[in-house]
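I hope you will forgive my troubling you with a question about protein structure. Could you please explain, in whatever detail you think fit, how the structure tokens follow from the sequence? Thank you for your consideration; the sequence and its tokens are set out here.
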Amino acid sequence: MDAKNEKAKLRAAIVERLSAMQDDDRRSESRSICRRILQELPESPGLLFAYSPLKSEPDIRPALNELLKKGWRIALPALEDGNIVFRGVENLDDLVPGPSGALEPSSFAPVHPSTGSGQASTPVASRESPVVALIPGRAFDRKLHRLGRGNGGFDRWISQHRTVSPETKYWAVAFECQLVNEVPTESHDEKMDVVITARGIATGD
């Protein structure tokens, strides 16, 4: 079986696992994941790329709200011409439904990785403001491979962003049932730096 077929088979299996999760388990694992995110991030506020969760993804909104209170700059994905761009957000209540069904910012300029604003034209990472990106997905393994939903949006964004911001760290966020022994991969697939679940953090070591 080739990688594309293996990926489709694994996606279907993960959808079944996620559908079988009880709401209490989703909430419990999401709370634990939020605690881990807050513990692992630097003390001083910086720029965080994150995501607005679908029901099938860990709910990281409590962590994002806490970080906004602490002065962090938060950017969330939006779809533009089929591609992912990240826009700054100051209040999660301001999000609107996007084409994918996820809530997304509607009126902020794309965020520059060094300043957290949409005004700068040259995307260069800032050493004074470390950047972390929280990345959802369908499945992950302990070697830090990621399986997305199949449209390649996050892989394209990560590949481009690694070029302009090589210091950015990519933290996968997942429910326990999304961890598998091996994720089938292709040449365009981007690896994570860590995988965060309710039970721990995989670093690929």
